[in-house]
Write a structure and sequence with these properties.
The complex is a heterodimer. By secondary structure, chain A is an alpha/beta fold. Chain A has twelve helices and 19 strands. Chain A has one domain: FAD/NAD(P)-binding domain (3-Layer(bba) Sandwich), CATH 3.50.50. In chain A, the strands form four sheets. In chain A, strands 1, 2, 6, 7, 8, 9 and 19 form a seven-stranded mixed sheet that branches. A six-stranded antiparallel sheet of chain A has the order 5-12-13-14-11-17. A four-stranded mixed sheet of chain A has the order 4-3-16-15. The longest helix of chain A has 20 residues. Chain A is globular, with a radius of gyration of 23 Å. Classes of the chains: A alpha/beta, B mainly alpha.
Chain lengths: 552, 164
Amino acid sequence: MIYDVCVVGSGAGAGPIIYELSLKGLKVCVLEKGDIYNEKDFSKDELAVVRRPIYTPSLKDEYHTIEELRDGKWVKFPTYETNWSFWNGSLLGGSSNFMSGFFHRLKPNDFKLASIYGKIDNSNIVDWPISYEDLEPYYEKVERVVGVSGEVQEYKNSEPRSTKDYPFESLKENKIVNLIDESCKQLGITAMKTPRAIISRQKDERNSCYYSNYCGSYACSSGAKGSSRASLISKALKTNNVTIIANAFVIKLNTSKNKKIKSATYLTKSGNKKELKAKLFVIAAQAVETSRLLLNSKDENFPNGVSNNSENVGKNFLSSSGGIVSGSFDESNMPLKDLFASGLFVNRAILDWYYTSKFKGGLLELVFEHANPIRRAGFMRWDNNADLILGKNLQDKIYEEFTKTRRLNIEIFQDWTPTDNSFISVDEKYKDKYGIPVANIRIGADPKDLKVSKILEEKAIEIFKKMKAKDIQSDISALPSSNLQAGGCRFGNNPKESVLNKYCQSHEVNNLFITDGSFMPTGGSVPYTWTIYANSFRIADFIKESWEKKLF
Amino acid sequence: MKRRTFIQFSVISTLLFTTNYSIAKTIPSNTIVLLEEIFQIIFPKTKNMPSSTEFGALEYLILNISHRTFDDSDKTFILNGANDFLNSFPEFFNLTKDEKQQLIFSIVKENYYARSWISKLTYYGLEGMFSDPLYGGNKNQIAWKSINHNVGYPRPKKTYGQKI
């Protein structure tokens, strides 16, 4: 059988394509690397969800290499040596199942950083080929279709909206927001309510949030979290136009003489090779794996990998992480019954330094440390001198910290500068258990990015001090966060400098689209998911129009 | 029967004669006894917290150490470390409770290998303390209750993310 569309991956970049094209009547086949789960399979099992490779591959079998600058030389090390996993969710819906769901749109100037601030030395900053106005209708569509809860507030750095309110009212909040709001007010800072891709009332077959207490990093058991699986694919399946092949690891895209993709080769769970044919291919395997797939798809038409005759695939990998500042709160700050109230959200973000007059800044997101106890307890076995704490001292520390304190984090999101030192590549020397070259991630960040994080760190500490937080700790670095991936196949108008055109269609391969975060030339100072969803809806519209015109 | 011998026998018999703990039969009995004693030193009973025996640190470890998702190198390190420890301190079982504790507290400060091994046991002991009781530790949610933990719901019905 030849499908109309083959979609590789099923996360936020894939969901809108699967949803829109199946509703349009196209026959869509999804090749998902992981298994199919649904709400009843998910639980708040800390061991299975966040401490063992259940929803991600084992690093012994499938790893990445990280390339770091050490003593002036770039050195590769496999992730199985450090357990620094760059897998985020191999299952239907991908890592959108596990997101915390704090959703921020890009701001209008994020689409034209080069024009606003000029090109930083040694950077590859360019303006996007589209504007905020092009994407705004799709941000709004995500609010309705995926479901975003929140409250619109008047604010200088807020982006324009085409609708007055969010379609879902804000989620319930922990009373610590009163302390945050008051402290920020005294400092002359604006604490904004964070929109979330979690619905606060029932939507079709999805139940509202039930405040499970284990939210970020955990899949949702009510369907309230706007995963691609719960919000889009479940509806798409009802069209009977969607076939999902689970445990299908796509290892190569095969091209025909006319330089179109004719098929995808994938491995089944048992390692058997299979081939799937389609008229159109949409890749959304998350930025690292998408570049890897293209680079590994070498043939006579594309000796450097498919869509890579311009040698741009893999370049300008991005993250938006800047580090975390955390502080401890106890009865001296607020009544413990309020501090420990189960499952309520913090929902506060600070965007006062999103832009400065001289450089692009970032965002501070306030969120409680995840409630699951094993991870937190693990840190308690060390004292400030990195000596091991044992016996009664350990037991007392565990009791005191868990029953009398709660930690609040301020997560820093900043706009990574695209440079030649941050990219995805493959290396024949490093292969997974199937013999497929793994992705190498060079993680050289521009020094400016660390400076911006340090400025934001000072602001976060200032807020914590005003809140009278104790034991304020910082972990600021230029290391990427593995769940914040973008770039590698940037879009643009110049085929010599970009992989995709402004509709995320390959410059070199007419029937190939890439709809995960790979397309972003710069990523904004926010988590990427809302923009990935919105852009994927935009591309779906383009594909539908082009399909009607028989352009593929 | 001396009290010490009786305690050792109790630990081994509890594990060996429980069918679910077949892995225990492949681990030398003195390793099992040693791990139990080390856990008791790391996690003693206190006014507010349960002891390792009460929450089931050893049972958790034995039940899960051979699961495919358990880090192979950690498993090897834990078992080889026990063997190395017994070779280094052959009289350990004959020491008094206080002497054993003093020994462990001192070697983690003086010896990197010992520190790493005890740290690894603490790491997995904490998993046994706070993981869902389905995995064999945190018996009757004793550790969760001790810290008034707000449990996340739904709790798992099956281990390791198996589908329902």
